[in-house]
């Protein structure tokens, strides 16, 4: 990965080496120094560029992919965008099987990035032949030489962060990092980064952020899958209703759960206090920091690093829409004016 002060051959040279930015206000009630690794500086505006590029280049190194071959994944989110971007540059066909719940905006964005999008019915079980999992599996079997990224079950997802995010943070903090806090979806980011950091210093505390409605925290504590933990929630990219093989539970010390509502308010607060326009899960990770800070878990001299996984622009019809916040009932409890119209 290259220094930014030069001319690049293509956008893929800009993947990784994202900045670490000190947080100056939002954490002012707590002891210690706090830094955000701002993954929206990746060319695809999220941390998923790292895994898309790494997994595809691994397949190339192993001779699995040749130009014109197909890359398949089941996502309308950040990973889909990143795979589409890498596919354009490297000359692969990108097929994304997405749920019919995905917004039209997202589907349009992926098509704009050259992806072939299969929209699959949302309300069928995962093993139904029409589900996006089954459609992706079938396409993968039918197309010789295709690669199925399968981010929740792909060990290379962890490896991508072990090779890039971990070393970058270690260098950027001069090895002085004391805490690493990150949201866990596939678990790739937290697992790969933590694995690297703990190899350098086993005393670094690693804290995962999970959603109420997800099974991950309970599984970490009991190693048992408890489906009573599962119920709908709004934050995308955080938590899960299954146990991802791309999560290494042994390198994570503990999990903290956050609510949709508090995470939404905290995401908006990041913009207003730090001038950083970040996604919903950045709000979630900062909400976890607040909860830990209020428990007195940080002390003077601590260096706490959090990941801001993506950019706020992907959430204009959600957390950054006053109408959406109102519709969720999120403005009521904090006495926040929902719409301030200035009359002339
Ligand atoms: N935040 C967002 C917005 C994401 O899309 C994801 C990925 N699902 C995450 C956080 C969590 O990252 P990971 O999958 O590496 O655990």
UniProtKB/TrEMBL annotation:
Q: Which family does it belong to?
A: Belongs to the cysteine synthase/cystathionine beta-synthase family.
The residues forming a coiled coil are: none
The UniProt record lists the Tryptophan synthase beta chain-like PALP domain at 12-310
Under Pfam families, the record lists:
PALP
Q: Which cofactor does it need?
A: pyridoxal 5'-phosphate
Its BP terms in the Gene Ontology are: cysteine metabolic process; serine family amino acid metabolic process; sulfur compound biosynthetic process
The entry's protein name is Cystathionine beta-synthase
Asked if the keyword Ligase belongs to this entry, the reply reads no
Keyword Plastid appears in the UniProt entry: no
Q: Which UniProt keywords apply?
A: Pyridoxal phosphate
Q: Which organism is it from?
A: Neotamlana sedimentorum
Query: What's the superkingdom here?
Result: Bacteria
């Amino acid at each position: 990965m290259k220094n930014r002060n030069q001319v690049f051959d293509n956008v893929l040279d800009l993947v990784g080496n994202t900045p670490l930015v000190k947080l100056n206000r939002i954490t002012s009630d707590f002891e210690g120094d706090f830094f955000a690794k701002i993954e929206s500086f990746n060319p695809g505006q999220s941390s998923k560029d790292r895994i898309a590029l790494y997994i595809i280049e691994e397949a190339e190194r192993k001779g699995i992919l040749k130009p014109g071959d197909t890359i398949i994944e089941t996502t309308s989110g950040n990973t889909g965008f990143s795979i589409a971007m890498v596919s354009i540059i490297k000359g692969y066909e990108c097929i994304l099987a997405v749920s019919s719940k995905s917004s039209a905006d997202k589907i349009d964005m992926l098509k704009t990035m050259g992806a072939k999008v299969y929209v699959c019915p949302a309300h069928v079980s995962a093993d139904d032949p029409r589900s996006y999992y089954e459609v992706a599996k079938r396409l993968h079997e039918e197309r010789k030489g295709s690669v199925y990224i399968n981010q929740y079950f792909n060990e290379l997802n962890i490896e991508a962060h072990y090779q890039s995010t971990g070393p970058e943070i270690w260098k950027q903090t001069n090895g002085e990092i004391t805490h690493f806090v990150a949201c866990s979806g596939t678990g790739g980011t937290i697992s790969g980064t933590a694995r690297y950091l703990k190899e350098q210093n086993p005393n670094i505390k690693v804290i995962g952020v999970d959603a109420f409605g997800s099974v991950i925290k309970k599984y970490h504590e009991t190693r048992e899958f408890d489906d009573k933990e599962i119920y709908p929630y709004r934050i995308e990219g955080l938590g899960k209703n299954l146990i991802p093989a791309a999560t290494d539970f042994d390198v994570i010390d503990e999990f903290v759960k956050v609510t949709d509502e508090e995470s939404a308010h905290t995401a908006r607060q990041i913009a207003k206090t730090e001038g950083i326009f970040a996604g919903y899960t950045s709000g979630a990770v900062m909400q976890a920091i607040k909860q830990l800070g209020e428990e007195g878990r940080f002390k003077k001299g601590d260096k706490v690093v959090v990941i801001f996984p993506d950019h706020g622009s992907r959430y204009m019809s959600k957390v950054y829409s006053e109408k959406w916040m109102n519709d969720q009932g999120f403005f009521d409890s904090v006495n926040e004016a929902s719409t301030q119209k200035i009359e002339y």
